[in-house]
Specification:
162 residues; 4-stranded antiparallel sheet; 10 strands
Length: 162
Amino acid sequence: MFIQQSDLFRDVEHDLIKAFMEISEKVDVATGHILFREGDPATHFYVMLKGNIKLSFKEGTYVAYLVSRPGEVFGWSSLLDREVYSATAEALTETRLVKMPGDRVKTVLEKHPESAMRFYRRLCKTLGDRLLKSYEAITSVSHAMTAESHGTGQILSMGAPH
């Protein structure tokens, strides 16, 4: 069962897994393919099977996250009543995904409230972990913006002059 590669679906009832599989399709995308753009209607939820997807915002100016491990999920906006995607999803390599309509995922979950609670709790953990990684990346960049180069007397400044 390919969607069980994701932690979100671990320990979920067999009937629920079956329902998810019935609404799922495997999708192969080519390198450079855009699955959705920031601001597009949030209609689908995805589970990575293999490949690499770059999530970026502000027309690709900022990379928010790289989806690269089997079982990782993205397109969560479609599950949280957000009308539009918050990022652009682009395949960096040949990629295979599981694609599910967000509205149908929510309908399936509504019929299984206990499993839905576990699912959404795990989704919150996933999003929280990504947020912490973003904080770490921001912190490391801000430290690099004014880091002394010991031994040469130079100061590296990547930001605007102070």
